[in-house]
Amino acid sequence: MSVFKEFTKGLWQELPPFRLVLGLCPVLAVTKSATNGLGMGLAVIFVLTWSNILVSALRKVIPRKVRIASYIVIIATFVVIVEMATQAFFYPVYEALGIFIPLIVVNCVILGRAEAFASKNGVFASALDGLGIGTGFTISLVVLGGLRELVGAGTLFDVEIMSAVYRSHSFSFMLEAPGAFICLGVLLAIMNAVSAPSSS
Amino acid sequence: MKAADLTVSTGSHWHSGARITDFSYNTLLALIPAIAMGLYRYGVCAAGVIGTAVASAMIAEAAMQKILGKPVRIADGSAAVSGLLLALLLPANTPAYMVVVASVIGITIGKLCFGGLGANPLSPALVGWAVLRITKPWAGYLDFDLALINYDLGFSMQYPLAVLKASGSSGLQDFNTWNLFLGNQTGGIGASAIVCVLGGGLYMIARGLVRWEIPLCFLLGVIIASCLFRLVDSAAYAGPLFHIVTGNVMIGAFFLSTDNSSAPINRWGMVAFGLCCGMITVVLRVWSVYPDGVVFACLLMSLFVPLLDKLKATPIVVRPTRAQITRKTVEGGASS
């Protein structure tokens, strides 16, 4: 039961971009479309899960003083794997995400989970934690990307949803950086309003 | 006794005796000449844009205040002023959906999300306009040359700043400064009626509702920056008078940059704010991709207001005399 909880907490309680408000740089930058959000999310799930596993397995070996450097080395290893794999097999996604794949190395969510969870818990729990947080991250990115793509370009996963008239006059403000901030802020406000204890 | 570690800052308000309602309705009154000029020029289309902007701003404010559980205060007129200022910046042919989106975003995101009137760091009208400006498929409607193609007003129908952007100051032979000052130019519904806006602004200053520092320094900043550019190359850059009588400078100096909650409240802060707004305006006109830079200059400088308020802040309390200070220090030294 408690193991299951390690997974589900990442889906709402500690949803990375909205609850922890961590890793915002890729969240804002790559969510111009739902596809990009999904690609970024899957990359993060892979890196987060494996780095959690490795950090947790090595937690008694790594000296406390150099732990951050060690975590970065571990994370960077998996990021390089992801980068090479996307370049080889998903080239359009690799093109679209650009610099933000190498930048997963310094994503606060991953370093944060390594420091806050994996370095203190067992391998199995850490793997579930990584999977859960990564899934929550992916869902957030897809929702944010989908919303921005739908309003900003009239498409969803590159499928044309809105009419041609809308698409040629779309509200492309949502695809710009300020649109990303406003969209994130509004979603955050709605989430807080929904989960706030009712003050009657 | 230890000397108290007090933070000295300016009082959070200046008071002219007017209430919010007085301020709003006087602003509306001061803008009537500009509105009249716009209606005379552009006819019922302009009335549509103004009506849509004001109505949607007020409805958005009322709806948002209901949702947030705050008392509905649209009767104070501040939402109407924001909507009106936004409409005066737009060309008469702006489609209604653009006007609605701009004023709703300006009021909800730009104002009420930050806590409503008095807490907004940016002027709602400017936020709405900026949203339209950076929405690429809509930007064509904001280019006055295209938007006003169906009009023939009997004077040069080219937007002066677009001409300046396209062909440098050599293209400005057609424009007579005095004519531009009288409002014989294309532009926003109200923003292009330079002399009417100036009159309204002077009325606001005379009533004590707008402090004179910001408008004066805004214009001064425009003059300084354009003179500097002219020193570099007098053939390529337009002169200070041209910059003052075109585009949004006049309405920006008197009505946009003086928005109460997004402008500084101490004198030196206002001076710095006005000068920077004016200079950034000219810099944006020369170097940015957009013809006019007033709105972005005001938005940028509004973000610096918390810092500008610290500039030579004068505390409200009476300053202690030197003798009092010395006595306090001596007492403090004795007891510690």
Derived from helix and strand composition plus strand pairing, the structural class of chain A reads mainly alpha
Total helical segments of chain B: 17
How far do the termini of chain A sit from each other? 33 Å
Basic shape of chain B: globular
Characterize the quaternary organization of these chains.
heterodimer
The arrangement of helices and strands of chain B along the chain is HHHHHHHHHHHHHHHHH
Mean pLDDT of chain B: 83
Give an account of the 3D structure:
The complex is a heterodimer of chains A (200) and B (336). Chain A has 200 residues and is an all-alpha fold. Chain A has 10 helices and 2 strands; from the N terminus they run H-H-H-H-H-H-H-H-E-E-H-H. Chain A is 70% helix and 2% strand. In chain A, helix 1 packs parallel to helix 8, helix 4 runs parallel beside helix 7 and helix 5 crosses helix 7. The longest helix of chain A has 31 residues. In chain B, 60% of the residues lie in helices and 0% in strands. The longest helix of chain B has 24 residues. The mean pLDDT of chain B is 83.
